[in-house]
């Protein structure tokens, strides 16, 4: 079946058309600057990227252009919309309302809307994308796949903050976790690769990208993860601070006169490796600068690896052991230097780096030596394929 996967932001809409039988991506692209002017970037599998400026006052026009591009005589990949069997939508926050993917209908959309306060930048945009697709393809099934759903198996002691309990009861303040589609996909793939049921394994998945999170997957279930109520908690990220002392908010307010919005902007957009290095959130830039002797870039990379290693250690404790550690996403898959920086911290687990294997790019590979007591792997994630598969499973 062909599944159209949609990942909608407030002013953008990413899409992929996937043939779930062959697992092939048929075409992909992005609509940018929706509500401003509008631009469609479209790429057929194996083809060149085509960019065209198109007026996109709302997401409805964006969807219209995507569907036209997919059916275009010269560069399209389908003849009619009947060839799209279903649409899988990434929905960021499902709170406690959703423990798994769902078929979207009016009642479900209202329940997703109830979660909007928890992800004000993401959920409303996700819903706009769903409605635009419903308008364009009224008889095609729409499925919602939640970033938070995989982590709904976390035990109470992992998700409750040390805050007054009524904030959880009244306002649902708790840890939720994100990147669930990726953590689920990679942990299942790890089990396939090592040839054991996922139910018999303790796996730590390190999803290291622009946003980064780590997940402890015990017997196929998420038992803890580093992101919390929002994707700000946990690791030091591209521009997000991760774990900090909350009293820093008051301190910065007193010192710099920052209000809550100012401080949130700093913590989300001006912190992380970018904030430390004052240079870039991209690890390629930081590595270049490190090679030229830049102290702050070197420090940013060291802080990043140290935090990753500390989280791995805490999840070994949470699961009372670990069988496999997997690196994935932009940095986890491509940056052998970051992996090489993390590995020495794992010596107490009987892990040693296979330097030659660590330099292999873009494929599934074991980067620990054969003698290591715990296997460390690189497993490329594919969130779009995971969403497409979930969509087919649900139907
Ligand atoms: P993601 O959010 O998973 O798409 O990851 C994006 C990030 O991955 C970028 O900001 C870079 O820091 C990092 N990245 C991507 N490609 C490479 C590469 N070849 N080497 C090092 N880092 C990379």
Strand content: 15-25%
Overall helicity: 25-40%
**Number of DSSP helices?**
15
Question: Averaged pLDDT, please?
Answer: 96
Structural class from helices and strands?
A: alpha/beta
- In terms of per-residue confidence, which ranges show pLDDT below 50 for 5 or more consecutive residues? none
The radius of gyration computed from the alpha-carbon positions, rounded to a whole number of angstroms, is 21 Å
Q: What's the total count of β strands?
A: 14
**Distance between the amino and carboxyl termini:** 11 Å
Largest sheet: 8 strands, mixed
Q: What small ligands are held by the chains? A: adenosine monophosphate
Backbone shape: globular
Protein model, in words:
By secondary structure, the chain is α/β, with parallel strands linked by helices. Helix content is 38%, strand content 19%. The protein has 15 helices and 14 strands. The chain has an 8-stranded mixed sheet with strand order 5-4-3-2-1-6-8-7, sandwiched between helices. Strands 11-10-9-12-14-13 form a 6-stranded mixed sheet, sandwiched between helices. Strand 13 and strand 14 form a beta hairpin. The N and C termini lie close together (11 Å). The model has no long low-confidence stretch (mean pLDDT 96). Bound molecules: adenosine monophosphate (AMP). The site of adenosine monophosphate has 12 residues, from helix 10 and helix 12. Pathway: Metabolic intermediate biosynthesis; acetyl-CoA biosynthesis; acetyl-CoA from acetate: step 1/2. It is found in: Cytoplasm. Its cofactor is Mg(2+); Mn(2+). Keywords: ATP-binding, Cytoplasm, Kinase, Magnesium, Metal-binding, Nucleotide-binding, Transferase. Belongs to the acetokinase family.
């Amino acid at each position: 079946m062909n599944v159209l996967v949609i990942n909608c932001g407030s002013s953008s809409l990413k899409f992929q058309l996937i043939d779930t039988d062959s697992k092939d991506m048929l075409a992909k692209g992005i609509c940018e600057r929706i509500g401003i002017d509008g631009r469609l970037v479209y790429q057929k599998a194996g083809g060149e990227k085509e960019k065209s400026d198109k007026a996109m006052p709302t997401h409805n026009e964006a969807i219209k252009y995507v569907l036209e591009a997919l059916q275009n005589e010269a560069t399209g990949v389908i003849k009619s919309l009947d060839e799209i069997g279903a649409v899988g939508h990434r929905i960021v926050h499902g709170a406690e309302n959703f423990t798994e993917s769902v078929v979207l209908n009016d009642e479900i959309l209202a329940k997703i809307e109830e979660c909007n306060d928890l992800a004000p930048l993401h959920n409303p945009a996700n819903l706009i994308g769903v409605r635009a697709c419903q308008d364009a393809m009224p008889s095609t099934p729409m499925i919602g796949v939640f970033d938070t759903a995989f982590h709904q198996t976390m035990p109470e002691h992992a998700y409750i903050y040390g805050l007054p309990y009524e904030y959880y009861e009244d306002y649902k303040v708790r840890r939720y976790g994100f990147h669930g589609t990726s953590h689920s996909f990679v942990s299942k793939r790890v089990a396939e690769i090592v040839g054991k049921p996922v139910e018999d394994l303790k796996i730590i998945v390190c999803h290291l990208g622009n946003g980064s999170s780590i997940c402890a997957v015990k017997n196929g279930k998420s038992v803890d993860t580093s992101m919390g109520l929002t994707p700000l908690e946990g690791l030091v990220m591209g521009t997000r601070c991760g774990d900090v002392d909350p009293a820093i908010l008051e301190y910065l307010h007193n010192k710099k006169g920052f209000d809550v919005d100012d401080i949130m902007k700093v913590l989300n957009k001006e912190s992380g490796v970018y904030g430390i290095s004052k240079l870039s959130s991209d690890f390629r830039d930081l590595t270049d600068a490190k090679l030229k002797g830049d102290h702050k870039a070197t420090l940013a990379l060291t802080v990043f690896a140290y935090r990753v290693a500390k989280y791995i250690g805490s999840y070994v404790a949470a699961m009372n052991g670990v069988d496999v550690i997997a690196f994935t996403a932009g940095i986890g898959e491509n940056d052998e230097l970051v992996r090489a920086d993390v590995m020495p911290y794992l010596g107490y687990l009987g892990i040693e780096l296979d330097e030659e294997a660590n330099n292999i790019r873009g494929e599934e590979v074991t980067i620990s030596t054969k003698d290591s007591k715990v296997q460390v792997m690189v497993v490329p994630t594919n969130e779009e394929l995971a969403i497409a598969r979930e969509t087919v499973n649900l139907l």
